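USER: I would love a firmer grasp of how sequence relates to backbone shape in proteins. This is the protein in question:
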Amino acid sequence: MPDHSTFSKNRHGRFRDSKTFRWVFDEVVRRCMAAGLVKGEGFAVDASIVAADASSHRSVPKAQEVDWTDPALSTRAVREYLAALDDEAFAETVPRRMSLTDPLSRLTGAPGGLPFFAYSTNYLIDTANGIILDVEPTQAHRTAEVESTQLMIERVEERFDLKPERLIGDTAYGAAPMLAWLVEEKGIEPHIPLWDKSERKDGTFSSGDFQWVEEANEYRCPQGHALRSNWRPFKKPRSHITKADTILYRSSQSDCAACPMKDRCCPNTPMRKIARSLHEASRDVARRIAKTPEYQRSSCERKKVEMLFAHLKRILRLDRLRLRGLTGASDEFTLAAAVQNLRRLAKLTSQAPPGHGIGAPA
């Protein structure tokens, strides 16, 4: 009989660097594909926060200097954090508080609740039967969750030769760069609510009330006046692109001064401005899809990801991690996703007619 320390050492160290758990997960996905449970037509993506094994009492504010050479802080989780500091993009995103137990975890919390340190588990599922095609651990903040989507889609395409016709997600995935990546680079329909803050609530015209004229590269206001990005020629050509990857279109001040609808358009400014995203064409694609019956069906299918997260926390009891560091979270999330797929595989194939279950000829 193996000693209990054998399991502990395997879990905390030996398997951590061997990618064994990822191999197991991928093999389970292949079994699900062989059983006909993966259709590859529609994918859905979402993220869920899981508490880290880190107490908020053992944390320091971001401004406080920490002596990481202290032997008491010489842990695997701390070494992973110090190695991550070599990444300039990561080093720039310093959290407001840092856990000395698990520095890579992020302080987060639902509105009205107490904050806690956590990681996010990101699922990419096939909507036909809710099979998890990929799982990716990230720090618990929205930017990392959205960026993981591109990684998972490309990894599934590389490992399983699967690319969906449509991707389903919530508003967090509806930013312009994400939509442009899906539409322009991957050719995937974004069944995703548009991330749009241009709608005005003070009774004045929103940008949607203006007509875009592609041929003239300008907007037309409700009165028919033009809004352009360039009203006069410059000796040195200008791109007019802002830091937010938008182009500002302005109306003529003389047109606005004589306009009878100025109070409903720009009552507090001499002219009207509209910021148009560089990826507005992809945003228009998302707007058109949102008006289709297929989009309504996709909105219902997105609940399949949420059901998996509910099962993860309530049935499998993974509402708090036991391993520390991003690699520890990766091990636990990957194993849990493999277990969920195995449960679906056993349930769905046991209900299949004779000759269509596990081991049936293709």
Confidence is low (pLDDT under 50) at residues 358-362. Residues 20-193+290-350 form a domain with the Nucleotidyltransferase; domain 5 fold (CATH 3.30.420.10). The two ends are 40 Å apart (CA to CA).
